[in-house]
Amino acid sequence: MTQPRHLHPDLLFPAAEPARSNARALYPLVKDLPIVSPHGHTDPAWFAQNGRFASPTALFLTPDHYVLRMLKSRGISYDALGIPRKDGQPVEADGRKAWQLFADNYHLFAGTPSKTWIDHSLHAVFGITEELSSATAGSIYDQIDRQLGTPALLPRTILDRFNVEVIATTEFALDPLTQHQAMEADGYIGRVRTTYRPDDVTDPSRAAIAENLQKFGELTGEDTATWAGLINAHRNRREYFCRFGAVATDHGVPTAMTADLPLVEKQALLDKILAGRLDAGDAELFRAQMMTEMALLSVEDGMVMQLHAGSRRNTDPLLMRERGTDLGADIPGPTDYVGGLRALLSRCGNEPNLRLIMFVLDETTYARELAPMAGYWPSLLIGPPWWFHDSPQGIRRYLDQVVESAGFYNLAGFNDDTRALLSVPARHDVWRREVCHFLGTWIAENRISKSSAEDIAIHLSYQAAKDAYKIA
Amino acid sequence: MTQPRHLHPDLLFPAAEPARSNARALYPLVKDLPIVSPHGHTDPAWFAQNGRFASPTALFLTPDHYVLRMLKSRGISYDALGIPRKDGQPVEADGRKAWQLFADNYHLFAGTPSKTWIDHSLHAVFGITEELSSATAGSIYDQIDRQLGTPALLPRTILDRFNVEVIATTEFALDPLTQHQAMEADGYIGRVRTTYRPDDVTDPSRAAIAENLQKFGELTGEDTATWAGLINAHRNRREYFCRFGAVATDHGVPTAMTADLPLVEKQALLDKILAGRLDAGDAELFRAQMMTEMALLSVEDGMVMQLHAGSRRNTDPLLMRERGTDLGADIPGPTDYVGGLRALLSRCGNEPNLRLIMFVLDETTYARELAPMAGYWPSLLIGPPWWFHDSPQGIRRYLDQVVESAGFYNLAGFNDDTRALLSVPARHDVWRREVCHFLGTWIAENRISKSSAEDIAIHLSYQAAKDAYKIA
Amino acid sequence: MTQPRHLHPDLLFPAAEPARSNARALYPLVKDLPIVSPHGHTDPAWFAQNGRFASPTALFLTPDHYVLRMLKSRGISYDALGIPRKDGQPVEADGRKAWQLFADNYHLFAGTPSKTWIDHSLHAVFGITEELSSATAGSIYDQIDRQLGTPALLPRTILDRFNVEVIATTEFALDPLTQHQAMEADGYIGRVRTTYRPDDVTDPSRAAIAENLQKFGELTGEDTATWAGLINAHRNRREYFCRFGAVATDHGVPTAMTADLPLVEKQALLDKILAGRLDAGDAELFRAQMMTEMALLSVEDGMVMQLHAGSRRNTDPLLMRERGTDLGADIPGPTDYVGGLRALLSRCGNEPNLRLIMFVLDETTYARELAPMAGYWPSLLIGPPWWFHDSPQGIRRYLDQVVESAGFYNLAGFNDDTRALLSVPARHDVWRREVCHFLGTWIAENRISKSSAEDIAIHLSYQAAKDAYKIA
């Protein structure tokens, strides 16, 4: 029988000595450090309401686009996995059946980070060390389901068990922050923080943009039909988000393009949006200008700006029509950070109060653009490997390519960017193990002293994220 | 004296323990599996006529553009290597002299896959373990030449010796398949298969395109001056190729661009081609539309579609004028697979009967585009590393970058893509050794169980190619 | 206390056995080979005047943009580091204070090649093995300063101590070569050579271009208002540079674009430049045409042509206004070598007398474009990893990606490209160690024989550079 590889003590450490022992020696220094998770997509309702997770399927399968896409790629339909359709046609309603289908195909995940995260969760959270398979599907389902009813599996308890010091959620500008209000009312303050993600009012490719801008004005008491009013509305709303712990803004954009236009041109763009007369070039330019405005507001209020650029969204129109967004059809593309950020950086790249964290899906920019840029501009940090690259090999390519030109201290540490709560500790553990892998190898190559490596391992596992996001 | 390194039992296995022993333990499981070679460019006449190979020079040197280009790059003229000129001016006619020149410069191949393949062939096929050099050139030439006259070196015997289960050749749409007819008549059926490569009637940048389209009509009895007739001609011709074992189509295109135009625009493009009034943009658009048509025909007839995109052909106009194509001056360029395939995938990417295997020369797309795409679309598989990247380091970069997002089961296994028959087992052996290298390291890093690694090694060495190409 | 890692005997060798021992065995063969440094930016005045270096700060800090940029990236101002301002406003004048600030922040350099080079210089040149830090800043400053007054630290002695056989400086076309004249007068001939870098008269984006072209005419006695006269002026000036040992030309260009226009269009471009009516497209085209002209002159006079393409210069306009160029704000971008060089190579790529060495900052071109090109064209060699990529990991990525398609003999060996004299041996040592690392691993993987590896290690450390630059 296959020995379960879940949580092997040497998981991901270098294959050979002496690097392996070096990694082993570093790991205890970082293993149990608190988790700082300043960027992610968990649901604030979990923490506000602290209720029971519905089922194993709802916990592991249906919300995880990494898992869904892989099953679809081998011909398994989203209907059979229970993913709702817009047209209301029935899909598989029996979570246990969908789970079985998932388990029947679990071998497809060999070599993927999804398997690492799921195996980690099964073992660390539920004490399950059997391999998920057709044969074990039912009994594993039952074990999980049974435990979901216990206090140990309530969301706030999970944060305790995982030693999560801070976790950020992400909300749109128009979000009322109801869940965060509830946590505040409850005295549950500081641990779960919101993040200001104003794509709903900065991205004119959204159908509802004009309507959203009007609501934005109502919400903030500003006249968002004028440029000055629009900026004031953001100023006002950012302040509101900060009340609920926000330390950062976040921007999901197809490219890294920024602009710095004269007021008359900015107003003209806004006029076009409100009149619904915008073309694709105008939309790009408006988004580009808004990035510079967000940077200028960060200079004012000190919020950390995050740029997540380079995903081509919704590349499958059939999926989009049938079921909507975030189900696996977003595919990265090349991204030009140097040309893209030129306008923003020329305007305020040397401002001491600006902090901009760059995330990319285009690894070719690591050594060629991001590391040289972060190694020059005081305002720039490189975000951790993102999305498809948040994986053992992805982390290796990242460290290989950014450290030499950016150093260790221009990195923003790690963040897990997850929608799947249970994967939080698994992801941080992979990062920490890979940091130990990297530094353990460098010690063995006599490139870094043990004491430096220890400092850096601790820094990258914990303090770097706090520093980067200005979390006291 | 230098010990010959040919066929060292640990060739390409990890340098250090315990990964080396893990690779050693996996290799016997895959070493002698039958060879499935569903894509390549060997000459069907070899297998149809089963005659003697002419000479060592004709076997190893003159048909191998990898070897020729390297010699040219260090100042050795194609005249001296015996490569024919279009103007009929004399070139070196003495194969033995060209061979000596090759051997004199064999040190140039240190570190190249060409040397690995040639050394492997010399050793495994001819039992030669001396290093090729100025001193050994003559005696090695004689040893090869002597054996070429024996039954053991006849092409069909070579397929037996190499345990080749299936090998595909590649023919243009207008090819009469004479050699395949001869094999059929001979009862030599199923082992050597053709592949439908209709570039001669889909690529309008060819001078003879209008003439070719007319011939295509005559050959199939369709009116290729109408769009419906053109598609029918393909339908008809694909069926003809299938009679000779074809399981796949293949398309060599400069970019991955596809289109899905209304009929009136398609007909207008065709009219322009036939009238010889096409510009470069029209040519690109016609090729792009034909890719979608081929996909739709694959939905109908189940043939597997292969896209080989991204080579900039004939970059040396002097070479082209003097001697023609396929002599080393084709150089890769960046390729956009996400944008390129958008039209085709939007039209039929979710069709269960579509299978499209993507090959690239632009490694930056492995992790950024290909793996995310193959990990989503049920119709897509990633082809093995191609051309310059079909090498030990190339295979390492490939596995490093595709596995985590695509898994192992969205890969098409290996194919050798060779024109050099004797390199077939050498190339498959390099792939199998590198798969063992990769998995052996992952076992040592506790990322995969031994039994999973065994399953995957066997799958990637044999079954994956059969599954990908629907070979029963 | 931290053990100093400076000059560890196994620095950068593979972490694990047996590759480590293989590297160790290769290294003594290359360690003490003479240094050939055919491309760099040291100041010829040092060697002509052979005077004392001013201070530790002037030696290690203020001229090194790698160091300055990293300090700036963490919020340290160029004022505090003593970098002069154009407006004459005072900056830190006390070199000792700036040195202390540098030492206080020396931990930022962990993992960077800058630290490797500086530690190497401190140890190998000054015998200092303490780690630079806040605590040791003063005493290290004193130790360096004291030694700067001794004969052992005079520039020519340093060349002796480092066993520098040849070192090239780089001068613009209008440079009178005063320092090289002084060395000639002094009988100090052949060791320090100039390089012809005519960007001052080939790059129309320079404000003074028209004036420069006029000076160029006066200097050479040619009518640079005509195309023939302009080319003659270059012919004349190249000959003048050769008198002072130049073996090569060098060209810093934003892209690799070349052109091959008819005379009438060339003259029209020149007319526009002289009239000050050039737009950005014209400027690109003029530069592009000049690259082909330089290649044609290389065919005539045999000078080796170097192309350094792909840096986006002066991306921080504030820095540019305040302090000028070469202070860390030059950031690489993607570069298209295949399309770019097409015109030049079509014109003269097969000329036996042409030698063109390609340097890139875009590593994605290594395997995709440069290695295939250098493995075909007899005129092309691949330059060593450049700028941000002249680092241990950068060298690994380079060898990983170029060797298999280009072989070892289409590489130009190493050059250090430095402005910092003391880093010359450190950089060559890193290259030699990484070559031993690479070959030591390949020996352990049974991919190359020990004797081949020995030949190649010696070749890449010494002879390759002499061959590439035609240094007898």
TrEMBL record, chains A, B, C:
Keywords: Isomerase. It catalyses: D-glucuronate = D-fructuronate. Its EC number is 5.3.1.12. InterPro entries: Metal_Hydrolase, Uronate_isomerase. One of its GO terms (molecular function) is glucuronate isomerase activity. It holds the Pfam family UxaC. It is an enzyme of class 5 (isomerase). The keyword Isomerase applies. The keyword Manganese does not apply. One of its GO terms (biological process) is D-glucuronate catabolic process. Pathway: Carbohydrate metabolism; pentose and glucuronate interconversion. Belongs to the metallo-dependent hydrolases superfamily. Uronate isomerase family. This is Uronate isomerase. It comes from Devosia aurantiaca. The lineage of its organism: Bacteria, Pseudomonadati, Pseudomonadota, Alphaproteobacteria, Hyphomicrobiales.
